[in-house]
Design brief:
homohexamer; mainly alpha; AhpD-like; elongated
């Protein structure tokens, strides 16, 4: 259960600011599906607009990183932060963008390994090598 | 400062298990540089051997993900976990593997955005959409 | 599901130490409602007593910070730590103490922004400015 | 040490996008001081502009929450996320905005308590009370 | 719900690599019960094999730490990392290995206290005492 | 550098509340050494007194868990939370209480493994087995 109301399409339709964001999500993604995070953020139009603008700018704009790579980076951060919803939504997005089973398996191996060595390094308080300095 | 001794090459040379791992790190990476995390783990030969075996298997073995993508995933997890040493070492590795300034900039944007939306989703306790179910 | 039994009022009534804490919670809050965290902690009377004493001292004692501000700080930490129950209970408490929709929206914006810049700063390992030194 | 170059005023002056952000930071804050996070972000003008725009919108715009309350929420998140630089910079900002020693002491007490009860609740996996449902 | 299929015994039986791991889990633990984490990892045989090999080596091999102490350390990390499944599975394992109610109560007190003082120390950015240097 | 003043013995001597806590720390531990966390908390006498009272009650009182086991649990949480000072102080305390190199090595192996499997379980969103229910 959420701490806020999850807006239906009908409720969104009654609020021009929310409707405009939902319209843009659908146009940008080429899909009628608006997932729950946007329906929850609809309670705070300022945060909804700012968050969608940032997601659109960062994730939908062509650049140096492949869209699938960006989605896998999003997955990695969401796993490390323990965000259940985010893990589900970005795993689904990565699959939709072409993440194969083998890629998923390797991502899990890297994320698991990184979590392990992060802990070991923190335990040992390893000093940064001068070679890594800029 | 570390919680353990950082082993010099001379000290490593006096311990066959440690020397064997250092030799394999050098051979695998094609470089004489052995960074501090291995010199710290040298105090615990069991952990040193197991960790290096896992790093070698996960990071050095060819697979479905590009080595640079794996390194950027490692960076993303290390940032999310707040591991200073790991951020430095994996940022340096990613650069050595070809991460351009533009790629780095986009990685930062994705990691920052993911951290922000992870927090918003956790705050709102957004329910997982049925569409994301396997 | 919990890892421990959630105590009913009847079970609490059979244990004087637990009953005393439940009585004090009700008297301090002016409400008959005892939420589940206390019913779970009832299995460990030492931890129950120590935790309630600390909550009472920190949250219920008048001081320099407004009770609503304290509750919003509690929310912010609970979100950052990803504690589902805590997010729910402290969001409900903050609303009960007067958090308006606009205040909630601004809290979300600050928490989201802080999470993002925390990640960026960690990624860049920004050195502390001398001006911030005490 | 940072993973990127910390830009001097002279270097910023040679890049119009960076200079424009630094100018706006100075004008918005009414101070000549530009702290290191902006000098580090200067390497990524896209991230610099987007981050400053968001900080300005969230932190400098009048709203329902007092500026000091926003700064203390920022502190709370930064502490929970373990971001050294952020803890320093936002503690300094909160003091500059009027955080008294007594307020600081109470903030520490709330943040410490929240961290403790977050851990206990996670350990016990306390189920959310139906009373907290929206 | 998981992001992957949870394998039944019948499905595992059709994949020799998965079946071999399930067989070894049962033989090592002296129990027919194979818990869900292994049934989820079965989708990635490489990760399944590597993870089980590591769990077996670390948790099932006799050493200097009592098996119950190792299990309680696992609980402590899982609580701190906010991993719901892990908290449940390792609390159950610790109980099966002899964790009494009193020991559980003391573990909770230590984990709660550590979380609190970790936060305070991070807030205050306490410098490491020279006496703690190796 | 700390966000607050680190009190000297002379400064502590001028404040009866602080001096009383420092005296009790020395008497309880049988050592003249008062480490920096207490010298930082001295700025907030309320937090200083409450924190020391809790540390004394949880860590110094005999119970079902061995003092060394409690110290190692404290280490595990501090590592997972990434608290540099806490890792140093509790590693030093555990050594002083008898943690051998072999025990330390095994602790590191457990903490590393737990961090890895926590991440994998979170990535896969493994459902809790009914067998783990209380």
């Amino acid at each position: 259960m959420a701490t806020v109301k999850i807006w239906t399409d009908e409720e969104a339709g009654a609020d021009p600011r929310v409707q405009a964001v939902f319209d843009d999500i659908r146009a940008t993604r080429g899909s009628d599906f608006v997932n729950n995070v946007w329906r929850a953020l609809a309670n705070q139009p300022d945060v909804l607009e700012a968050t969608w603008a940032q997601v659109k700018a960062v994730m939908a704009r062509p650049g140096a990183l492949d869209p699938l790579v960006k989605e896998m980076l999003y997955m990695a951060v969401s796993i490390a932060n323990g965000c259940e919803y985010c893990v589900h939504s970005h795993t689904a997005s990565a699959r939709a963008k072409g993440m194969s089973d083998e890629m998923y398996s390797e991502l899990l191996a890297v994320v698991g390994l990184a979590s392990q060595t992060n802990a070991l390094v923190t335990a040992l308080q390893v000093p940064v090598d001068p070679e890594f300095k800029v």
